[in-house]
Amino acid sequence: MVLNGNVIFDIISIMKFSRRNVLKITGFGLMGLFVLPRMAFAARNTLRSMRTGVQPGDKTRLVIETANRPSYSLSYPTGQLVVNLSNTSANTGVTASLASGGLVKSVTQVQNGDALQIIATLKKPISQIPKSGIMVLSPNGDNDYRLVLDFKAGAPAAANESYTTSSATATTAITASRKYIIVIDAGHGGKDPGCIGKGGTREKDIVLSVAKKLKNKLDSNGFKTYLTRSDDRYLKLGQRAEIAESRHADLFISLHANANPSRKMKGFSIYTLSEKASDEEAKKLAEAENAADKIGVEGFTEFEENIRIALSSLQQHAVAEMSEEYANGCAKSFKRASIEQQPGPDVRHAPFAVLRSTVPGALLELGHLSNPGEEKLLKSGAHQDKLVNAIVKSIKNYNFEV
Predict the structure, then answer these.
(1) What region does 87 belong to: left with phi over 0, alpha with psi -120 to 50, or beta?
(2) Does the residue 175 lie in any domain?
(3) Is the pLDDT of residue 397 over 80?
(4) Is residue 203's pLDDT more than 80?
(5) What confidence category does residue 283 fall into, taking pLDDT thresholds of 50, 70 and 90?
(6) Angle, alpha carbons 281-332-227 (nearest 5°)
(7) 247 phi and psi angles, rounded to 5 deg
(8) How far apart are CA 72 and CA 68, in angstroms?
(9) How far apart are the first and last CA of the chain?
(10) Treating both helix axes as pointing N-terminal to C-terminal, what angle do 381-397 and 305-336 enclose, rounded to 10 degrees?
């Protein structure tokens, strides 16, 4: 940008605040600090298209396409689903394309000041759409941004119940009307002890102890929590993932303790699912944790194989994004609690079979039993409480509704 024909300015950063944006601009020996209203930088969004479809599991899909990334909120008046798009203009030339067999009878637009309301009139009541049923897809080919909502008939949401999401990070508020469901997986168990420390400490015992404490703490904080195992039993990886699916979990956390050929190695590490490991160590860890059985995404069997692959890929992309968001927040929570981190990136990725599901999740290696000092720490009730408190904070700060 050339100002007065002489000075070239470079935009260094844009920092978002609740009411204002601060734009810092530097030039040749000149610095200006301009504080302008947020809307000065927010381009007006425009509705592009609307359509519905039918998904596996008796789900209806509503797709709302916009020119820019949408900032939205959802509400559930009786017999309706209302999508409120902030800073968005109506487009009278757009008529929703409705698929037969879905729950949507009609879709209308209502301009309400700067916001556009998309009102879907329903054939049957629905419950609040979980985070796993919401995706915001980036432009691809002929498509612009798409807000994708998957829902099915069920108990109606509480009157006027709503929640808001945007690109800004939000702290989740837990209310009686919507308890988020967390499934905690204590790794190994039964005939599978996991790794064993020099002092004889077994991984399966440590993670079960932490899992039980974590469940109690989460329950007392307003979450609905389930354990994949509450005693010393063996479960296949597929069974663990299926428990998260059957409980309709909003988040899945698999707890483990690590081992390393070097007894000096110590610290926590956090992993999310990826078909390609982020590094050799992550690859080896996944291979060690995985069983022979493979877990596929269920619910797509009535479609041809190429369609199943596409649907699975779309769903897994959304799950991967949500898992990554939680994992990064969890790493920050651990570090803020002064829990030592294993050298390397905050979050690593590998093809862990236990994470193969439609539920966002992460695998937490709480420390190294192969390190004598950390083995003693992991056995300590005080340190286990410290780990639990950090995990609880990470879950409370996780934005379930993006």
Answers:
(1) left
(2) no
(3) yes
(4) yes
(5) low
(6) 75
(7) -85, 0
(8) 12
(9) 35
(10) 120
Helices (H), 87-202: none
Please say whether the beta carbons of 54 and 48 come within 8 A: no
User: Residue 173: inside a domain, yes or no?
Assistant: no
At residue 157, the pLDDT reads 62
pLDDT at 37 over 60: no
Mean pLDDT of 90-94: 93
Q: Count other Cβ atoms within 10 Å, centred on residue 212.
A: 17
Tokens representing 146? 């798409």
Percentage, residues of the chain above pLDDT 70: 72
- Enumerate residues 6+ apart whose C-beta is below 8 A from 173: none
Mean pLDDT for 281-291 is 52
Note if the pTM is more than 0.70: no
The reply to whether 193 and 276 lie within a common domain is: yes
Instruction: Say if CB 82 and CB 72 are below 8 A apart.
Output: no
Residue 147 amino acid letter: L
- How large is the average pLDDT for residues 338-354? 88
Q: What is the pLDDT of residues 143-181, one digit of tens each?
A: 889 999 999 998 776 544 444 443 333 333 344 346 899
Which residues form the domain of 55? 45-165
Q: Are residues 115 and 205 in the same domain?
A: no
pLDDT tens readout for residues 300-321:
444 444 444 444 555 566 778 8
**Do 96 and 129 have their domain in common?**
yes
Domain contains 268: yes
- In sequence order, the 6+-apart residues with CB closer than 8 A to the CB of 288 are none
Q: Assess if residue 172 is contained within a domain.
A: no
Within 123-280, strands assigned E span: 134-137, 145-151, 162-165, 181-186, 224-227, 251-258, 269-273
* Total Cβ atoms within 10 A of residue 220: 10
Look-up: residue for tokens 């629905």? 126
CA 289 to each of CA 144, 184, 188, 315: distance values in angstroms, whole numbers, following the listed order: 40, 17, 9, 24
- φ/ψ of 336, rounded to 5, equals -65, -25
> Residue 38's CB: how many other CB atoms inside 10 A?
13
SS3 205: helix
- What letter would DSSP give residue 303? S
